[in-house]
Amino acid sequence: xxxxxxxxxxxxxxxxxxxxxxxxxxxxxxxxxxxxxxxxxxxxxxxxxxxxxxxxxxxxxxxxxxxxxxxxxxxxxxxxxxxxxxxxxxxxxxxxxxxxxxxxxxxxxxxxxxxxxxxxxxxxxxxxxxxxxxxxxxxxxxxxxxxxxxxxxxxxxxxxxxxxxxxxxxxxxxxxxxxxxxxxxxxxxxxxxxxxxxxxxxxxxxxxxxxxxxxxxxxxxxxxxxxxxxxxxxxxxxxxxxxxxxxxxxxxx
Length: 253
Known about the structure:
By secondary structure, the protein is of the alpha/beta class. It is built from 8 helices and 7 strands. The chain has helices at 16-27, 39-51, 66-80, 103-131, 152-172, 193-199, 202-212, 221-232, and strands at 7-11, 31-36, 55-60, 85-88, 134-139, 177-184, 243-246. Strand 1 (7-11), helix 1 and strand 2 (31-36) form a beta-alpha-beta unit.
């Protein structure tokens, strides 16, 4: 097991990609703190992990609540003495162009997709410095590297995640801390409902994927989880400040 006894925090781990990432980290030996604002989803992820022989604990938390996030990180440190991996995955899609996204919707996107990532990294950085290293992984999106029609709030925040990741990697490499970004493409989870509405429904999005994605299909959450494992493990030990795009080739055509 390539993550044996490492302590990991995964946000947005109550469903979808976040759950798949938490499961694969636990499968490889990590003790996983499963964070999600949906208490039932977090508990279900932990149940899957424990039933498979892994170790995990659940925390129902809104990661945009600074005090609540601080309490979770402090609790993990009190119980385990270290934090080796932080995967900031919690995010939101708010569809619409410049004139159709409310300022409140834009702010909500920024708070969850960017600021919460920043604050979680800020909280774990001192512990990682003390222990001589660690890994931070921030989920961006293929929308963070190219134009995405009428999704100004989402694309702006996902571009910002990449810039923030590069900055943190440059500043913290001297402490043995690696920071990378993951850019998933089309993954068939409920998270994509705003995109599907924007594209005109399920039939339209299926046709788009067949035409625009060279591999011609959605990714599975398990495929994205394999990329997460690579980025948080020693398999990527000389990689920092980078953006791994896992999109079936959509952004190259």
